[in-house]
Automatic annotation (TrEMBL), chains A, B, C:
The lineage of its organism: Bacteria, Pseudomonadati, Pseudomonadota, Betaproteobacteria, Burkholderiales. GO terms for cellular component: membrane. It catalyses: a UDP-3-O-[(3R)-3-hydroxyacyl]-alpha-D-glucosamine + a (3R)-hydroxyacyl-[ACP] = a UDP-2-N,3-O-bis[(3R)-3-hydroxyacyl]-alpha-D-glucosamine + holo-[ACP] + H(+). The active site is at residue 262. Residues 120-200 form the Mannose-1-phosphate guanyltransferase C-terminal domain. This is UDP-3-O-acylglucosamine N-acyltransferase. Gene3D superfamilies: Hexapeptide repeat proteins (2.160.10.10), MurE/MurF, N-terminal domain (3.40.1390.10). The gene is lpxD. It comes from the Bacteria.
Length: 366, 366, 366
């Protein structure tokens, strides 16, 4: 029983595109040699003549004078600022970074082994599950009853799919991902290893008299619904809802080790960086950016286009777009401790200030 | 080889209880129609006549006037405040929320597929392990030598049970859970997917001379002991002790992505929200509530009934019950930065204040 | 198919060393009975006559007077301070704690079942993978094409090894670990359960016009390279680089639930405590100590021997060794809230102070 049963032969490593081919596929205007051959991508500082590079920020214009890149993606405005174009060719486009990403995807696709369709013999699949012939099911995958997979869905080794889960076309789940029963994953969902979708939300009703009693578990009967084009990082956890669903709208990107509690709704295109945690029933708008290790309390509403900087804590709803912060940068420990001790006595400092103001007022009125 | 080998036929979805049946099982007094049929549960705002709802907080009394719920769980005190009871029936109980949770469990149990006893043929089980006939062992589970499972223990797909692990009756471990050798899990333990119980604590002795040397690993020879009725969230990690055990007492509930380091002891009924981290050898009392993303330093002792609010850091022992905090709420970035810069110079502000006080004192004494 | 196929018979539990044997193996000078038999290790307060204990910190000297330990590891300087040596023997060494750790490793090795070499029949291994005869491959392990394992490498149940991964001699990966394609693990790498090495870094180029558009994924074509003697905790995630590699140098020790983003470099012997997160492209020096739940922003450089205390956030490069902090300790909630509100108005307090200073200056000049 071999893992390679599902693999195509190794891809060629000599992928190449001319600037003209790229412009035909992705648009943009060529300034220079349209027959210029691109064999890979690289940042300006390390690019060689066979590489395509990009200038996304005019502050790196100086690097353009010295880069060895054969061609550079650039905006029209920035190209006008280039003094010495040298032998370099340019691909002029309004968003060089996004263009670069799309070309990089072409190279990556050409150099990657595609997953061949088929079901590895070690997989354990309930006969009621619907697996299209184009799907690729890796070794030791487990798929429970009534699950439905989309075309070309790819489940890598050890993935667990619970009862009645629905997975969209072209979804790709890495090794050891768990999807609990009843959850729905949109088209092109990408989930990295170890992520857990649909575990029980954390809900218990206290029933204590003094020291005795118990936490009574509230059954979590909702599920998780992921829209299309959602990406979820390694070991991230998204809990199922208590009575209704936890919803991640289309185009949301979530990094590693993020916690999203039950009944949250994350608006379309929002990005959430690693180690963030969002408590239950909070609704986050569209196009938000949640920084790394941010914590957001439960039952809040964040407007569209809210940005929360890394390590901040949000404890009230934020009704306007904008940038929000509550984190301090680390400084030398001794200086920090000196000031932190004063911070805990600001009320006393304020009282002294008030007293002084009164004293002066009195002395001036004399 | 099919996953469904261990599954019962689908449960009926037309579960129904009369108020009288509920009162017989869970107590409480019926005010209204004891034959009222309950087919499900819902919050006040979305409940329909076939639903049971609950009022746990008198601030939602207004919703009672308009809810479509057929019956409502309520305290006697709150029922007296209801002006217009309409056609609704009431179930009067001292703790409506806990009552609601117990009824919800009834519905959930009736609507869920029970796990059938048996061992999936793909499981790999050491012959010295003791597996009762009532246990349910899912596909690709691995159980090492001398492990002992309780009655009706349920291990879902890909669970790994190390050597000599003991698991109590009615324990339920979701997919991809790892339990290292020698750990003990109490009755009704519930562990969600990806959690890791008993990995090595983080212990190394530094042995360096200048730039060379090594961190010498300290073998972690203790284990993890979980009491009865402990629930552990997805991808949470609880490390084994260095020379003695890490202990989680009965009734503790732990959310997702929580880290509990070696040799901690968590007192009975304490709850720990997601993303919290507790460093080594810290002892937390009973009935504590540790908020999300809280960090607690090592070698501390927290009294019973301590509450630490979300995102706070605890660096000293807390000997009295109470609520403790060290987190700031996020505000607009510009305002935050302006004040944060001043916070790092509080010592200078204090010095200026002191100088002013001296000046005034001098001028008054003239 | 039984898990025990790969296990040796249980080890004896009566391991014993004389002080002389220990001194021969690990050095140090015996003061007392060199034939003293050591059957285990224990801390001073619970040690019995058959135990070896250690004094690493002179503040515990008082415990030496009362300990029941048969022998104690101690520095020469501390031994001179012991008033009543009693019947105890001493092993004098410059680093008692590291010595203790090494002896503990001896006992642990003697009492542990060694993993027998061999491949469990349920493992799925590509025929192009190179697995030495001395390796131990557990149940349900999956190894993809062209992976290369070192001598005595040990992969426990459900480990997933991607294409072209290279693993050094004596590496040991616990259950459910995932290593993505192309990553390299050094000799004696130790990875705990659920860790994910080499998932995609979090990189997307925004391409929006108003509300429509998409995040364009930037292919993560680098890998992760771990040096020798690296230990990685449970459920920790280390992302692959975007165009170049993420690098963890030799001797680095990383705790549980840590996130290391793409293109980071962690210098040799640095230790990172649980729940820390390090954003992309940050370079951390050698011999650093990163506390629990610390967050470090992207594209920073931290010098060698930087210490960041627990829960702090680093948002600027730190060019000098030293201890850095930005975390507050939790205090009573009411006092905290009172002062936190003032903190958000420090700018107003400063303005009042300035006004007072001006007033006094004016009144003095009259």
């Amino acid at each position: 029983m071999v893992a390679s049963e599902l693999k195509a032969p190794p891809a060629a490593n000599d992928t190449m595109f001319t600037l003209e081919q790229l412009a035909q596929q992705f648009g943009g205007e060529i300034v220079g040699d349209s027959a210029c051959c691109i064999r890979g991508l690289a940042p300006l500082e390390s690019a060689q003549p066979q590489h395509l590079s990009f200038l996304a920020n005019p502050k790196y214009l100086a690097q353009l004078e010295t880069t060895q890149a054969g061609a550079v993606l650039i905006t029209r405005a920035d190209l006008l600022k280039v003094k010495n174009r040298g032998a370099r060719s340019f691909l002029v486009a309004p968003n060089p970074y996004a263009y670069f990403a799309r070309v990089a995807q072409c190279f990556a696709a050409a150099q990657q082994l595609p997953a061949l369709p088929g079901i590895h013999p070690s997989a354990v699949i309930d006969p009621s599950a619907r697996i299209p012939a184009t799907a690729s099911i890796g070794p030791h995958v487990v798929i429970e009853a009534n699950a439905v997979l989309g075309a070309r869905a790819r489940l890598e080794a050890h993935v667990y799919i619970g009862q009645g889960v629905t997975i969209g076309d072209d979804a790709h789940l890495s090794a050891q991902v768990t999807v609990y029963h009843g959850c729905t994953l949109g088209a092109r969902t990408r989930i990295h290893a170890g992520a857990v979708i649909g575990a029980d939300g954390f809900g218990f009703a206290p029933d204590f008299k003094g020291d005795t009693g118990e936490w009574v578990k509230i059954p979590q009967t909702g599920a998780v619904v992921l829209g299309d084009d959602v990406e979820i990082g390694a070991n991230t956890t998204i809990d199922r809802g208590a009575m209704s669903d936890t919803v991640i709208e289309h185009g949301v990107k979530i990094d590693n080790l993020v916690q999203i509690a039950h009944n949250c709704r994350i608006g379309a295109y929002t990005v959430i960086a690693a180690c963030a945690g969002i408590a239950g029933s909070t609704v986050i708008g569209r196009h938000c950016m949640i920084g790394g290790a941010v914590g957001i309390a439960g039952h809040l509403t964040l407007a569209d286009r809210v940005i929360v900087t890394a390590k901040s804590g949000v404890s009230k709803s934020l009704s306007k777009p904008g940038v929000y912060t509550s984190a301090f940068p680390a400084i030398e420990n001794a200086a920090w401790n000196r000031n932190a001790a004063l911070m805990r006595n600001l009320d006393k400092m304020k009282a002294r200030l008030k007293q002084l103001e009164a004293l002066i007022l009195t002395s001036q009125n004399k």
